[in-house]
User: What shape does this take?
Amino acid sequence: MHKEDEHDIVLNHSNVPEQKKAILSNQMLTLQKQMQDSSRYTNMMDQTEYDPDFDYSGTFNDLEMIYLFVHHERDLDQKKNRTVGTKKEYLRELLFFYNQLSSLGDLYGFDSTKADIQSLLNQLEPKHIRKYQAWLKEVKLGRAKKNNDSEEKDEEDNKGKYSVATLSRKTVILKAFLDFIYKRGYITKQLQNALQSSNVNINDRPNRDLYESEVLQLIKYFEDHVIIHGIISTLASTGMRLKELCHSRMCDLTYYEGKLFLEVVGKGNVKREVLIHQKIWDKIVAYRTRRRFPSEIDAMDQSPVFPNAKGVAYDEKYLSNYLSKVINQAEIPFIKARKDRIGAHHFRHFFATYSSQYGASIDSISKTLGHKNLSTTQIYLERRISRENNAAHNITETPFMNDM
Assistant: This one.
């Protein structure tokens, strides 16, 4: 590793005891923000000269390999590469993994006291990866669902452990990273093969069922709260992701044969249009009037469709937490009776199942939701389809049931 190179990502551990060579908690966010900057990526790739025999282990350190993986561009079309949000998630997961091994390696049978913070990965054995994954499965996160106001609570069970869905996501990210550095010769062992698969089935997924009567109760309950009313009505009637709603702009609204459509940017920067019904537009107008914004559709108007109190676009995480908090504090009987909390994403699931109930095909629902694969849409509809196909429906009017 060359200290004079601009690409170096090195931590200052001069004040850290030898046995605690790790990323300190107060450094984690700073390092994550530093590594989100993609400006060093081209310079680092220039050094490799795309040479299949390039010596990655002799040139880069562990953190730089994490950086290379996160910013790796697989396609000339930038829209097909990882989004900023995905990169942020990957960095968070991989830095957490790296810090756990460097500071608490004894939990996984790894002697981190003898490890160099900059070249720890090549000292790992498959057994360390297996034990790390086993630890993830059992670790208590220190917060139960009832104390967590964010939608993240859907990712955890009542005992505060990671859900199967969360473990699956963590496994996919870690496995892809280990495969990446092995193929480039940075590590010599196929550590990725030590990871067990973590498949998610219907019983592992958070229950995001929300029914027509429940949505109508929520909309009625917040009728005098123009802000909440407008947002949840739009989410329920369009199937938009909350992030798409936050980033929607007035200039992206257009009419087609008398009907209003809003162009949104989904995952992978893929654009699609959602239909804004007249009743929903009336609610959006009421929202914008409350925020003192005009509602004339103008191709030059860059303002967000749903401006916050400061007149700018909402931060997705803030709005997610806020919606979850106010909805689950609502004095509505079905809210009090639910074991799981309702978040913004529940309205997207409602849209899918409700559209299906009224005859929309899986293909049209998939395209409207912006799903890349039909299998994702089928997951949304899995419970409804399972219930409708229950064999017990066929014996409802039989002599057996009538004589019960």
